[in-house]
Design brief:
By secondary structure, the chain is α/β, with parallel strands linked by helices. It contains 22 helices and 15 strands. β14 and β15 form a beta hairpin.
Amino acid sequence: MNKDYEKQCNTAELKLAEGDAVKAIEMAHLACGSAPHQGRAYHIIGKALIAQEEWLSALETYELAWLLDPMDADANLGVGTVLGHLRPNSGTSVSRPLPELSAFGYYSKACRRFLRIKLLAPAQRAGKYAHGEQSNVLIKTAIMDIDAAICNWENFQAHTQYFYEYVNPQKYLPPASPWLSLCFKDDPDLHLKVAQKFTNDYAGHKAVTSRKLRPLGKLKKRPRIGYLSADFHDHATSRLMVGMLEAHTREIWEVVGISYGPDDGSAMQKRVRNAFEIFVDLKNGSVEENIKKIKSLNLDVLVDTKGFTGDFEMAYSSSRPAPVVVNFLAYPGTMGSTAYDYIIGDKIVTPFDHQKYFSECIVQMPNAYQPNDPNRFFPSEKQSKSKEGLPEDALVLAAFNNTRKITPDQFQCWMRILKNLPQSVLWLYGDDLMTEGNLRTNAQQAGISAERIIFAKHLPEFEHLARHQLADIFLDTFPCNAHTTASDALWMGLPVVTMQGQCFASRVAGSLLNAIGLPELIAKNQNEYEQLIYKLATEPQTLSKLKNHLKNHRKKSTLFNSELYSKNIEQAYSFMIDRSRKGKAPHSFEVRDINEGGGSRLIGGLEFKNIQIYTKK
């Protein structure tokens, strides 16, 4: 070890911590001279340049560190962070062309770097790969996600097959994203196996493999529920659950928010934080410190609202810091780990005969599994088609899902619909020129003019909601349905046509449509899906009737009743706590709507029972 190098790096980090970026860079440059092939000094320089908002110089510095070691996690993360700031429409001024990049592709390259650290670092930390070993396979796993994001389908079948190879017990391959598996294949057995394999491979924690109950600690005046997330800011998860959080019965329940995500200063962040009686911020602690802090809260139930979604940290829930751990809302599938006791679902997304596809015990909510906020923005101003680039006389078919959810089969289905409806346009959500180019090329290859594929740019939430009024029908994706996106459309009175499959993710929109009283918009197969869309597009009276139904039932339906949802999920928590305190193992059960008498019952049970929760007198 080069002692001068270590000393110089330590001094540079100290100067950076003191806020003296200039001195930090000077000292780190000296360290580079002492050991030019070591990455630590370059990382310090990169951080200092970011602090000074010298984005291009920071990019070059991190690129150099990456060239020294392509598997350097800090270098990959640094490049991704800088490129994220330089993405299109970010408002960052770029004074000269980026090296090897252009406005056409640098955001996509940023995604690749983020994915390399997100998916490959666990394998690297686990010591399963020596430096450089099978690097072509390592890179492939990172590219799978970006190919899906930019709708590059040249290797779609090979990418799909990779998930089946990944779960083969005779092979060891770098981790494959469980979330991405939901977008590639409607196969709940595959999703379970991918989740189990990923959990076992993930090296950031040691998963608890048994459901042995922890000591319950002292009884409290009110049971304590902890919601864990990195998304307590302006994020889809917070927008869905904030009304439910505000509606919890505070005389009975103590509600705790546990955050390991960023501060964005948004109105939503302020609102969701105010919905908690206690708010614990973990973002500055180490994983080990944060686990101790969560355990010290003496929770009765920990509700994980992240799952395998962006910026997740499995270590917290997998350490079982509460007697009961619940998988809720964000991830539409199993976590594949017995560290989780329950998953919140409903009769559509998690029928009891699908229990074999879940490591958690199924909890069926009486209506939709998804909570929604009835106090969200509802615009009344008239919207302009021309402002969005939409033809005034066109039938607008909107599909605002994440582009990762668009499969080649789904896109070909949409192209057939456009052929049968010559006055129609397809309105997609896109903010990347490479994605737009790929989709327009695929449209032309299917015989559809590129001008009929129109892209909605990123807008603030209230503006995005408002433009739903310009669309005629919302086309859902398969096998991964719209989630929050479907609720947005229904809230704005836009009918959603979906195709229901076998896995949780392919049944979400069906759950929402059933809850709002429109089960007739759920297709059983692709042919039925196409016929249903054609019927609505060519029968204006039928489409108008559906829109009027949504308008009249928006606030009357159980889908947008957060108070009712809160009371019903409190029944679920009571049942979980009751079994835990009696020393009984977790068991799948269903909840009856509080307005119909309430109560919960086990699978096969004869009657619903209302649970008296244990509290300290």
